[in-house]
Fold Mitochondrial chaperone BCS1.
Amino acid sequence: MEVLYSDEAYDMLISWVCSQPFAQSVRASLAKVALESSGRGNRSGLQVHTGDGTKKPLHYSPWNGRFYFWYKRHFFFFERSQIRGEFGLPREEASISYFGRNPKVLRELLDECRRHYLGLIKNNTCVFEHQGGTWTPSKLRSKRDMSTVVLNNELKKMLVGDISDFLNPTTRKWYSTRGIPYKRGYLFYGPPGTGKSSFSFSLAGQFDLDLYILNIPTLDNHSLKTLFEELPQHCVVLLEDIDAVSSKRTGNSNKDVSQSTSSTQMPVLKRLSLSTLLNVLDGIGSAEGRVLMMTTNHIEHLDPALIRPGRVDMKIEFPLADEDVIGRLFFFVYDPQSTTVTGGDESENDVCGTKEKAIKDCDLPQLGQEFAAKVPKLEFSPAEILSFLLANKHSPHLAIANVAAWMEKLREERTKLTRITSWALDDNDGFGDH
Ligand SMILES: Nc1ncnc2c1ncn2[C@@H]1O[C@H](COP(=O)(O)OP(=O)(O)OP(=O)(O)O)[C@@H](O)[C@H]1O
């Protein structure tokens, strides 16, 4: 049985093989630094982060040979090597065989590999990105708990309820008996740093779905079609910064998006046309059961066709932080319940412990109110506030004392940035030097 490197079955097989006793004593092995703290360990066997803080841990796996082992009273051999593929590029290959005639035995073994792999990744979300027209091997990221995205609770509940209803097996039947395509689309819109991507990621984790991220500016028509055709049945597809593709159609419904403007208002060269995107979203190639999440900073730049019901079933605004969110972000950072001290040496933990105790002794609700009263509502994004609070994470009092100066600095930076942007735009107006 051959297993293709490009397929996730490859990871299932290799990670199982690496966990077997025979793999520890092989004489030909591949040594690699497991670069990612949590991920596939360069596809030489799944490496799930152990949190021991080892720098550049080495990982070994059977390589370039034939390796024999017993499994359920059958004699197997596993082969893995590197060959020259298309255009002379090196390509990895693996296969598994056994002495016998029943293919079921091999499938049972692969199923065991699958279960082993699912056990390893159970607290992770598999994230797929793309290079041109192909999905790259998934990366594993720890699931992000929904509670870590500070948002209106009603909204959260409503969205979670909507998605869980959609994913309910009876819903699929309901859709098919009525001839309605079984898919659901959401648009998350709002200023940068308000949690749109983070929330999409935590939703994927909540429903144990793989996340497929599409980066619009790097796509052309052909690759978008191919990528959509390769989507599995149940997954979350995240189309980030969808305004980078959209153009307001002025009479000509197929106007090319190369004339559109991006979030920064700068003209961008794009090869992906709006009509292709619309066809792909509606087409047969569009996987059944997929949850589509689109994000944008500029809902006003979107073509109405892109977000019409059927393509987008719910539009959800992610606003700048209001008083409630500001207070909850404060709590999120200082509440000892959401604090875990990991890694570091003992003395560092002692310091953290002392600081935590000092924070515990504070009247947090009172301080939270004080902090929220100092920050004007709907002026700063949750990302900005969080970043400030993290810089003062050991002292809520310091955060309150420093917040006015921080806001002033941020406002100055914004003014400067607006001046630079408008200067750059003026310079690009085709009227030459200033
Ligand atoms: N509401 C929030 N609650 C908790 N953390 C947040 C929230 N909003 C933003 N953050 C934090 O800010 C950072 C940026 O957030 P994220 O990328 O989700 O924002 P975004 O709205 O998708 O931004 P953009 O529009 O620029 O893509 C992340 O580290 C995230 O954890």
